[in-house]
Amino acid sequence: MTTGALSTQVKAQVLAEALPWLTQLHGKIVVVKYGGNAMTNDTLRREFAADMAFLRNCGIHPVVVHGGGPQISAMLKRLGIAQDLKPKLRLDRSEGDVPENVFLGVANGEVEMQIGQITEIVISPGVDLAGPLPSEIQNSTLMAVGIIATSKAPDAARALISFISSPSAAAVLKASGFQPVDKN
Questions:
Q1: CA-closest candidate to residue 104, choices 79, 121, 119
Q2: What counts of helices (H) and strands (E) characterise the chain?
Q3: Average pLDDT of the residues in 140-168
Q4: d(CA 159, CA 88)
Q5: In terms of residue numbers, what domain contains 133?
Q6: Three-state SS for 77?
Q7: Which letter does DSSP use for residue 132 in this model?
Q8: pLDDT digits (tens, 9 = 90+) for 51-75
């Protein structure tokens, strides 16, 4: 159901119920996990983007991270090991309240191994990075930056991009699990 199909009364009620959260999270960074059908359905993709813009307009700073479940399943099929691993796999739909908690199942010993983003592994207490997947089956995300068209400081955003693209930032990015792209 799209938000356009909701009555004005329902929209008003949802907004009224969300207002305390919007107030509490104003000025804060909020991590939002994006994946599943929202990535493959054009309507859901547009609505997700609109929701992120809404949060931004409310003074909340969303940071979107990728879930990756369907891509991992496809990778296991391409490797020809999906059926062998099926009895050992467990789909964990729990989500950490902060990125450090995404790998709690591994840290607590409930799960021996979990596939995920390097940036989530390296910040998870009690979890060691075993290494990246081979490049042939890697699912990379190319990150980009967008700023609001009416920004009062677009040069600051460009300066940030320039800095994080510099050789001096490369070591810090690599230590955090990012693989800087060579622009040459």
A1: 121
A2: 9, 2
A3: 79
A4: 47
A5: 68-138
A6: helix
A7: P
A8: 888 888 888 887 776 656 666 677 7
- Do 41 and 78 belong to one domain? no
In the DSSP assignment, the letter for residue 110 is: S
- Residue 33 near residue 67, CB atoms below 8 Å: yes
- Which pLDDT tens digit goes with each residue over 106-153? 777 777 777 777 777 787 888 888 887 777 767 666 667 777 778 888
Are 131 and 150 members of one domain?
Answer: no
Residue with tokens 């930056």: 145
Structure-block tokens of residue 110: 């409930």
* 156 and 113 fall within a common domain: no
Structure tokens of 53? 């813009």
State the burial class of residue 102 (Cβ atoms within 10 Å of its Cβ: 0-12, 13-18, 19+).
buried
User: Phi-psi category of 131—alpha, beta or left, where left has phi over 0 and alpha has psi -120 to 50?
Assistant: left
Alpha-carbon span 93 to 67, nearest angstrom = 10
Task: Kindly state the tokens that stand for 89.
Answer: 């796999």
- Say yes or no: 57 and 81 in one domain: no
Measured distance between the N- and C-terminal CA atoms of the chain, rounded to whole angstroms: 45
Q: Is residue 102 within 8 Å of 116, Cβ to Cβ?
A: yes
